[in-house]
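In response to the reviewer comment on reproducibility (Comment 2.3), we provide here a single inverse folding case reported in full, input and output, so that an independent group could reproduce the run without further information from us. The structure tokens appear first.
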């Protein structure tokens, strides 16, 4: 089941929201080509999504510590510095939580950051968390940056996107 969950994460957010200027090609094209999706550091929707994730992290921790039937695909997104002084946001999966500390495995191939590599095991600094997600019987919980990226799509593109993923995003 691990790869069934990770494939959509990679599909949706390979490299994820690299918070820097980058507006063409379209978000849809980048998703389809598994490219980094860039956002300006002042993008209001993305910054609101990150703030919402940070402010609701306790919900993720509770769900992770006491998972209900149908909970799976737990992942955290962390912001890593890049050589050009921007941030690259990368999904971390295969999580453990011991003594109030998450550890996990890097699940995206970094594009710019030199801080981590695909497959690295990392100790998670809660200050670097920019999103969280898990599936509840196939329904996305959290995933606020995924939602912000999806909201950039036209209605036909959203429909196409929704058909391509293995989970449901409720509006």
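Designed residues, in position order:
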């Amino acid at each position: 089941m691990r790869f069934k969950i990770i494939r959509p994460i990679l599909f949706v957010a390979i490299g994820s929201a690299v918070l820097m200027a980058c507006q063409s090609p379209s978000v849809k094209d980048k998703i389809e080509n598994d490219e980094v999706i860039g956002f300006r550091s002042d993008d209001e929707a993305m910054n609101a999504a990150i703030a919402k994730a940070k402010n609701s992290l306790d919900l993720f921790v509770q769900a992770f510590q006491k998972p209900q039937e149908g909970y799976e695909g737990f992942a955290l997104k962390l912001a890593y510095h890049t050589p050009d002084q921007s941030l690259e946001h990368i999904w971390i999966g295969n999580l453990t939580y011991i003594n109030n500390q998450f550890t996990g495995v890097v699940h995206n191939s970094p594009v710019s950051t030199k801080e981590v590599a695909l497959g690295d095991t990392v100790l998670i600094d809660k200050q670097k968390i920019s999103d969280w997600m898990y599936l509840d019987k196939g329904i996305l919980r959290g995933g606020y940056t995924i939602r912000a990226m999806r909201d950039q799509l036209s209605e036909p593109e959203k429909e196409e996107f929704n058909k391509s993923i293995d989970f449901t995003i409720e509006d």
